[in-house]
Design brief:
Helix content: over 70%
Largest sheet: none
Shape: globular
Number of helices: 9
Order of helices and strands: HHHHHHHHH
Structural class: mainly alpha
Distance between the termini: 45 Å
Strand content: under 5%
Number of strands: 0
Radius of gyration: 19 Å
């Protein structure tokens, strides 16, 4: 029995676990900021809230990465990249005590992913297949190429949207948009790809068990 237990395949993580790993840190950031944010306009108090929430954001991102590594048994390349950029831009935010760095971080991440995917696609390579570790079972090479191309242009759209909102909204409104605009758009875009993916061999079995969307910025 002991040998059977050892040889038994590890149960794959549920989709909800992956969502928690990917989106938990930004929820922590939002919650900590709302807790420390001043009720009345106070620049010093607002900066303190940003610093506190950014520190919590960095810590939560690292915890999510470690959880993925030791509990789920893997860390996707995109999660490594996202966590590294979160830590880098978060440190700049804390060091300079300026919310600019936390707001511009998504633009940089979206552009980085978008350019990387598009350049690889132009060279006939499906970079997203490597980044997501072939999460879509049965998907053909053509399907992976189309998915990489589509995500590249979607990342460019998100980068442009983030810049518009960064200039048009105050920090509270921009932060709320990260939850109520960017996340729904990402999920809608992901599900909108399913018909195309199914035409290119996607097996729906196990899709909910794998990480199927890049982590948020």
């Amino acid at each position: 029995m002991a040998e059977e237990a050892k040889s038994a395949p590890k149960k794959p993580a549920t989709g909800w676990t992956n969502i928690l790993v990917d989106y938990g840190p930004i929820l922590v950031f939002f919650g900590v900021y709302k807790y420390f944010a001043p009720e009345e306009q106070n620049i010093a108090a607002e900066i303190a809230a940003v610093i506190n929430s950014t520190g919590a954001f960095i810590l939560a991102a690292i915890v999510a990465l470690l959880f993925s590594k030791f509990k789920l048994g893997k860390v996707s390349p995109m999660l490594w990249i996202s966590t590294t950029l979160i830590a880098g831009f978060g440190s700049l935010t804390i060091f300079f005590a300026d919310e600019f760095w936390i707001q511009v971080k998504p633009t940089v991440i979206y552009l980085f992913f978008g350019i990387s995917l598009l350049v690889a696609w132009l060279k006939g390579k499906a970079l997203l297949q490597w980044a997501l570790e072939a999460a879509f079972e049965g998907l053909s090479e053509e399907g992976w190429l189309k998915l990489s191309r589509n995500w590249a242009f979607f990342f460019f759209a998100l980068a442009a949207l983030n810049e518009v909102m960064r200039y048009a909204l105050d920090f509270d409104q921009w932060l709320a948009a990260k939850l109520w605009v960017f996340l729904p758009l990402t999920f809608l875009f992901t599900f909108a790809q399913l018909p195309m993916l199914m035409k290119h061999g996607l097996s729906l079995e196990g899709v909910e068990e794998e990480e199927t969307t890049p982590p948020p910025a």
